[in-house]
DNA sequence: GCTTGACCTGGAGCGTACGCAAGGTGGTAT
DNA sequence: ATACCACCTTGCGTACGCTCCAGGTCAAGC
């Protein structure tokens, strides 16, 4: 599969895919004799996985460490698990802060709703 | 209140507070005749509000627009409400993506848990 | 044979949100 | 008086995560 096809399927730019590979966010992709990348389904799975994780705010460095550990096989299972747990906890913490802010925003919006109505009553000519 | 005191109370650096003021994330702070900032409780409220919003990932530019609208008084109520609603929706969307990722991480971790146990059974000498 | 277009590499550039250091001022403690 | 410390401004530096560009290569169609 060419890089362009992966771009479409995963909704990323070619630059981003090459960047991901360069920094080890996805394992090295096989190349044709002339050096052109040839993605497998497995590669695409990595890309989509990384995209999801990135969308949730997981850091590139942590994900790269995680991906890098796969080269060491099953001996790195525990280490990989630790990374996942750490990232999971960080994510849960961020979500907690966001829940509070979301509630505050909702309260604020409700308040604005009222005040907007009041302002309109005071400033719009009566029908 | 001096900038140092606000730093402690809000857990920010002085640089950040000056930056916030410069880009309009908080309204202009009163100065002493010699130019030293003198924060009011109201200022501190702004700072904590902004810190919470920033912690949840709301962008500086959006918050600056929101703060800027206060100078226009009640006539800007509707516009401010729109900003809040937009930011609230963006936040809700991010949280949704994060919820999915959190679930995936939990599943992955559970799977690792099992595989780690299996690996240990295979590699540790029997007692 | 030549053009076209997709791909390659290396490296520079960019937006965001600060952080830091240099050089200067002012109030106060000794 | 002078030393000191907290504060000021200006402007450059940094980390992160891409993004873009120049210059080159390769395979295919005309």
Would you kindly provide a written description of the structure presented here, covering whatever features stand out?
- 2 copies of one chain form a homodimer.
- By secondary structure, the first copy, chain A, is mostly helical.
- The first copy, chain A, has 2 domains: 1-55, Multidrug-efflux Transporter Regulator, Chain: A, Domain 2 (Orthogonal Bundle), CATH 1.10.1660; 77-127.
- Helices cover 70% and strands 0% of the residues of chain A.
- Chain A has 5 helices and no strands.
- The A-B interface holds A 52-53, 55-58, 74, 77-78, 80-81, 84-85, 87-88, 91-92, 94-95, 97-102, 104-106, 108-109, 112-113, 115-116, 119 and B 52-53, 55-58, 74, 77-78, 80-81, 84-85, 87-88, 91-92, 94-95, 97-102, 104-106, 108-109, 112-113, 115-116, 119.
- Chain A binds a DNA duplex (30 and 30 nucleotides) through helix 2.
Largest interface: A-B, 35 and 35 residues
Rough shape of chain A?
Answer: elongated
Which regions of chain A have little confidence, pLDDT < 50, spanning 5+ residues?
A: none
CATH topology of the largest domain in chain A: Multidrug-efflux Transporter Regulator, Chain: A, Domain 2
Please give the oligomerization state of what you see: homodimer
Q: Structural class, from helix and strand content of chain A? A: mainly alpha
Amino- and carboxy-terminal Cα gap of chain A = 66 Å
Encode the helix/strand succession of chain A as letters.
HHHHH
Q: Taking Cα atoms only, what radius of gyration of chain A do you get, to the nearest Å? A: 23 Å
The CATH C-level class name of the largest domain in chain A: Mainly Alpha
Q: Number of DSSP helices of chain A?
A: 5
